[in-house]
Specification:
heterodimer; A: 203 residues; mainly alpha; Rna Polymerase Sigma Factor, Chain: A; Arc Repressor Mutant, subunit A; 0% strand; B: 143 residues; two-stranded antiparallel ribbon; 5 helices
């Protein structure tokens, strides 16, 4: 019994969503709504950067949470809820991309004006002449085009690591890969991006 | 991490700003809640076949003790139908057999005359004693 208690404590410590998940499993829809509010921005980013289409992102995100809600009783706490729901989103998006005809060269939506105050953006624009002369929209377009040259699997890794700042170990768990494979995919993706975005390189 | 990785990460992190805004996520939650309600009500709604089955069951339960008449009556109706069909088929087969052999089928009932012994009868026994009775062939066992 003490071992069980300590195990429960450990789970509570490692998974901050355990309480919400438990309540959701007992039929508390408000608890699941809190999980939706908490994770929809991050999952939106994941799906959007993989699909580059806002309508597809909205539909997929709805499907992801609908699936998570239906399967919540199957969640056994072997991983964190965050990893579990990210895995659902990644698998559904990769399956969607396999079926979808590639729609390249889509126009990007307006960029959030907060980018102008981003420290990294200021740093880039102060170091690199081509970037300084480039409008923000054009830079975003270039980034998006570069992303679209990657394979779906490489784009998933770049999205999680470079854009969302997730560690290798977490990405490996979500994609059910070894950490070495994640690093390898990142290496090849970066080499490919270098050829697309070389003009923006700093240094 | 080398310069290429650093540069990639710096550029790619700019894509974090491609967000739809807070209003989108509020609307998203409302949309999700509506979908969940719709799906749960749809999941609870029985199929047309289940609805029909329930109606039949209700009707059957309302019949009370008389409900046993329904299967009994149905069984009797089926048994009579099967028996009638079998008899009809047998009759038709017989007609075909006679037609093939050139004989006229015997449609009239065969009769046999039985002479009863002239025994004196007491009142209360058979009337018309000493007279002959005409019995149908089927009751006598003769052809």
């Amino acid at each position: 019994m003490p071992a069980l208690m300590s195990d429960t404590r450990r789970k509570k410590k490692t998974d901050p969503d355990l309480d919400l998940v438990t309540r959701s499993q007992s039929g508390d829809t408000a608890a699941f709504d809190e999980l939706v509010v908490k994770y929809s921005p991050k999952l939106y980013g994941l799906i959007y950067h993989m699909t580059s289409n806002r309508e597809d992102t909205n539909d997929l995100l709805q499907d992801v949470f609908a699936k998570a809600y239906k399967s919540i009783n199957k969640f056994q706490g072997k991983s964190s809820f965050y990893t579990w729901v990210y895995a659902i989103a990644t698998n559904m998006t990769l399956n969607f991309l396999k079926k979808r005809n590639r729609r390249r060269g889509m126009s990007l939506d307006d960029v959030d004006s907060a980018i102008e105050h981003d420290q990294e953006f200021i740093e880039i624009t102060s170091k690199s002449d081509p970037v300084r002369e480039t409008y923000i929209g054009e830079l975003q377009k270039k980034l998006n085009e570069a992303m679209q040259t990657l394979s779906d699997n490489h784009r998933a890794v770049v999205t999680m690591y470079d854009i969302q700042g997730m560690p290798h170990t977490e990405i490996a768990k979500i994609l059910n890969l070894s950490e070495g494979t994640v690093r390898s995919r990142l290496f090849y993706a970066h080499r490919q991006l270098q050829t697309q975005l070389g003009e923006f390189w700093t240094g | 991490m080398n310069d290429t990785d650093d540069n990639c990460q710096m550029l790619m992190r700019l894509k974090r700003y491609e967000t739809p805004g807070e209003q989108y996520f509020e609307d998203f939650l409302t949309e999700f809640q509506a979908r969940r309600t719709e799906e749960s009500s749809y999941a609870q709604q029985p199929s047309p076949f289940d609805q029909w089955k329930a109606k039949v069951n209700d009707w059957y339960q309302e019949l009370g003790y008389g409900k046993w008449a329904v299967p009994a009556g149905s069984f009797a109706a089926i048994a009579i139908t099967v028996f009638a069909l079998a008899a009809k088929q047998s009759h038709e087969a017989s007609e075909v057999k006679h037609a093939a052999s050139g004989e006229q089928p015997q449609t009239e009932e065969a009769t046999i005359e039985v002479k009863l012994p002239n025994v004196p009868m007491t009142p209360g026994t058979l009337p018309n004693s000493g007279s002959s009775y005409v019995l149908p062939a089927s009751t006598s066992g003769a052809q």
